[in-house]
Specification:
By secondary structure, this protein is mostly helical. The chain has one domain: Tetracycline Repressor, domain 2, CATH 1.10.357. The protein contains three helices and no strands. Helix 1 runs antiparallel to helix 2 and helix 2 runs antiparallel to helix 3. 15% of the residues are buried.
């Protein structure tokens, strides 16, 4: 649990900093604060989720008596990509109605 909290904190800091930078550029470029806030939150959420998958999947594979090195890289990447698409497209569907 300690490693999961640590990774979540680091992911949140990275996500807020990257999302804040991209959101700031979007706000300066388009002049819309709502768009910048949406971009900031989705990027922060996506970058925070990635290390959580990176910790949880190898731990689960180790618990199932499987080699965590063999499958965790591609599977974590695929899960992170799918989740990120879900965040972006789900939020767009909600906002656009």
């Amino acid at each position: 649990m300690w490693a999961l909290r640590r990774e979540a904190g680091i992911g949140l800091l990275l996500g807020v900093s990257c999302g804040g930078l991209v959101g700031l550029v979007a706000w300066i470029w388009h002049g819309r604060g709502f768009v910048a806030l949406c971009i900031l939150t989705r990027i922060a959420l996506a970058i925070t989720t990635a290390p959580l998958f990176g910790i949880a999947l190898p731990t689960a594979l180790r618990g199932l008596q499987r080699d965590p090195k063999a499958a965790s890289g591609p599977i974590v990447l695929a899960m992170t990509d799918i989740t990120t698409l879900f965040y972006y497209l789900g939020f767009a569907a909600t906002v656009l109605g």
